[in-house]
Write a structure and sequence with these properties.
about 270 residues, homotrimer, 9-stranded mixed beta sheet, alpha/beta, UDP-N-acetylmuramoyl-L-alanine:D-glutamate ligase, globular, EC 2.7.1.50 (chains A, B, C)
Chain lengths: ~270, ~270, ~270
Amino acid sequence: MFQTIFANVRKACPLVHNITNYVTVNDCANMLLACGASPIMADDEEEVEEITALCAGLNINIGTLNRRTIASMLLAGKRANVLGHPVVLDPVGAGASKLRTETAERLLKEVKFTVIRGNISEIKTLAYGNGTTNGVDADVADRVTDENLPEMVAFAKAFAAKTGAVIAITGAIDIVADSSRAYCIRNGHPMMASITGTGCQLSAMTAAFVAANREQALEATAAAVAAMGYAGELAYERRSATDGNATYRNGIIDAIYNMTPETLEKGARYEVY
Amino acid sequence: MFQTIFANVRKACPLVHNITNYVTVNDCANMLLACGASPIMADDEEEVEEITALCAGLNINIGTLNRRTIASMLLAGKRANVLGHPVVLDPVGAGASKLRTETAERLLKEVKFTVIRGNISEIKTLAYGNGTTNGVDADVADRVTDENLPEMVAFAKAFAAKTGAVIAITGAIDIVADSSRAYCIRNGHPMMASITGTGCQLSAMTAAFVAANREQALEATAAAVAAMGYAGELAYERRSATDGNATYRNGIIDAIYNMTPETLEKGARYEVY
Amino acid sequence: MFQTIFANVRKACPLVHNITNYVTVNDCANMLLACGASPIMADDEEEVEEITALCAGLNINIGTLNRRTIASMLLAGKRANVLGHPVVLDPVGAGASKLRTETAERLLKEVKFTVIRGNISEIKTLAYGNGTTNGVDADVADRVTDENLPEMVAFAKAFAAKTGAVIAITGAIDIVADSSRAYCIRNGHPMMASITGTGCQLSAMTAAFVAANREQALEATAAAVAAMGYAGELAYERRSATDGNATYRNGIIDAIYNMTPETLEKGARYEVY
């Protein structure tokens, strides 16, 4: 099924509007191109509504938020809602500062999100109003493991029911859930933690996947998460002894560029609960 | 002739001031270094006039414009004009929003540009006050082809006559024109469309080329366009089976770094009308 | 000794708060990850104090400063001082504009820095209130050579005494000094000048090194400088004929990723005065 979903992205070439941080923005743009979509970045209040109207999907990432861009996120998100465009939220660092937590909460209140993708600490912060955090990384104590998986799946489904969004919690084991079903995805490689922006890139790609698969937000999100993890595996396999995290970063984007719907279908490893 | 032009860049090492978007800014900096120039990025109103005064050329790119940086673009552009420094405009996404279109128009009215470089949709927007657009990419209907080439060359020359700037329309076939002559450049590779920022990088490099070849803005722009396209060809040739767009992005910058005036002279493919 | 210092970074995995320019920010983040630290970027006044409180060190880089981020730098710097966190200043382009020079001076007056790292022109600007500069690059006339080394070492020690900070002047020969001792580091490769951001990356990495070696700021800074230079050598050795500055940029980050405390100890070349 991921095969059809990915083929739809390559066929539709969705234009995705990104209001995102300046740390990983170039990687997000190249990742969107790698998966077959087109990126546009625009964050000024005076143009975000118009830009989002041109696009097929919107990706809001609070990574280096400020007062000016927060206003733009709200404007663009509401406009995308009116137009019925899918909207993805990446609550980078929610829990790490009051500004991030409150902005994420305000976005959740004023904008209807199709997908919320974050690490477990960020998602817990959104669900419970507070959470532990380690900067922009998940707190170790929070991590999804095989032991706590049933509990985490229930948590993701409940938060999906509450928000009406597909919830994607990414980490060593990824959970992608709506209110009734959850994909637990086993793709990925630990080395992905050694580069900045794999989460941001995945959120951007998720916006493309849901934009090209409007009626299947759960499956489209699961396919994007599996594709990212599988790309991390492929890039690791191709790594030479002197390669480090910089080359690995390029390798992941390259792997998405060269991934086909068929290889994704074969490479994806997941269970559905 | 491109040989001499490129040799002048390597000899002069022009310092280029860039007010550009945060998506591709790092690539622009590394591309300037690759061609033998030096980059400086500064976008605050309080310093842009001073910074531009230190430099040999200015590159204005509206890719992620906002109110603050628009004011800086105007200040820097006017100051560069007073000093007689070459100024390049990259009207990224003109036509995609009122803010971008109006900002590009205002810049054209208040600043005298040496070169305007964009895709065909962006340039048509500037010339006609409106245009079709596909976000930051050219609309397919607009594309320059062998069939419409004479008409497009006439359009470019007419817009060059109107603005007093060299007009560079880049795409599968590139047109670089002043009011009386046009270079049609056949270098490039379709894979260049799969990475973000080749246009931005080219605009930055063009600023370096015209800064080092003050009396030959047309030829300098044509040489920069040919160099970029040729680099796209070379990077494609060197590509291995598992490389994708991320490695290709590095390959293009690498190819400019290793390009010599002689290899550019041999690799450039163009006609003059 | 550099061995123990680097091992401490890998053990402590310090979280480093960066208020830095948008040109090289991604490279700074990946370099921090490469050396074993974690990056967080946040530049809004409303959150910088909280973010810095979460972290083990702060890196302030004025590369693309503006009014908004200058206020954040001051807030974060003062907060880090109250908390006793190490703070690094990278005065990018001090001397190139009044805004940069005055901002650097104001930061020096209001914040106590653990380390100040810049090229010789930037450091002279801070020390003398003015200096020659070539944009963001050092002026040739200023460069540290074997001939002027004793004088430069004395200058660095005197400025260290005046500021209470470790002074790191990087270039072909690097000087890292406190008021009584100076490391002259001979690592590095001329090709490092062909990529943007090696200085910024080094400043970020230095913040991690001093954060993980709180009682040894001089040695930690010297170790970071040696590691960066040695990475430049290793990346150059691994370079193939068609590689250029883009691949070299990745190669340097990769070399830090793969560097061990032992290889750094063996590869570092320096004298102590």
